[in-house]
Structures are given as C-alpha cells and as structure tokens.
Amino acid sequence: MKLSASESRAVQLDGFKLKSPRPAREDHEHRLVMQWARMMNWGDGKLSDVMHHSPNGGKRSPREGAKFKEMGTQAGFPDFQIYVPRQGFHGLFIELKARQGVVSPLQKIVLARLAANGYQTAVCYGFDEAKRVISDYMGLYCGSVYSREHEEKLKHKNGLGGGNE
Questions:
Q1: What are the helix and strand counts (H, E) for the chain?
Q2: What is the C-alpha to C-alpha distance for residues 37 and 93, in angstroms, rounded to an integer?
Q3: Cα(97)–Cα(94) distance, rounded to whole angstroms?
Q4: Domain VRR-NUC: where (predicted)?
Q5: What is the mean pLDDT of residues 8-30?
Q6: Strand pairing category for 120-125 and 92-97
Q7: Can you give the pTM of this predicted structure?
Q8: pLDDT band per the 50, 70, 90 thresholds, residue 5
C-alpha cells in the first residue's frame, strides 16, 4: 500500500526509508508496520510472510458489516497476528493504536482471552512501539539480522532449554 505524496514524509529507520504520514492516523501506523515487515528478513523470506493484518476497522455499510460478521469477523480482534511460536508463546497479537488512541473494552476482553490461551499480546501506540515489540518477540536485532544465539539465550532464560518449542 503506497501513501500519497501529499500525506507522507520520508523517515530514516534502520537504514530504510519508510513513508510516514501526517497526521499519525491508525491506518497509517498499520501501513508503516507492514512496510517495515516487508523489508525485514526472516527465515527464508520476509517477516511479513508470517504476519497477518486483520482489517476490522473502518466504515462499512450495514449490509457489508453483516456479511463480514457472517463470515466470522469478530469485533475487538487485534490488528496484527504473528503466527510463529516463540519464547513459550503460541504467537503474538498486537492491537495497534495511533499515539492518542484508546483501547475499547471489547478489545481488552479479546486480548485477555488470547493471553489466557498462551499467546503474547500487546497494545502498541504507534509504529515505533510496534516495531520494538515485534523485534523483541521475533529476536530481530541489528537491523534485519536474526540471531539464533540470542534465541538460545532467551530459551535458557525462560527455562525452555535447547529443544524445539
């Protein structure tokens, strides 16, 4: 998803130029996360290959809303999912808010349910916080370098030993 020239400015992050819009609306923060994830190496592909964005937000007609609900879309479901088990969790779910955003009561309930079922959950306010949470969870350090040594240290620290999770 490209941002229009009128709504974006270049920002230097980890040696990459990303488009950062003004003002920082939530959908723009989502775009920044995915732009970054598409540039980050992970395994034999990119970090974005193991991520999903749930497009729950936005305005829909009542007919379209009913169709989405019938197909299983759930209100309050987090914005991003990373479906890689790490650090003793089944995966990572992130609710991403603009810097002044507010988490709804239903979003809090859904995040608590996910956490109770073995997922790491986080509410992030803006791209920078989401990038930090994702990087910490995935073991991304020094730009896009994935460190197996760091993962082993985390496993040891979390009492997981050297075996597969």
A1: 5, 10
A2: 15
A3: 9
A4: 24-128
A5: 56
A6: parallel
A7: 0.70
A8: very low
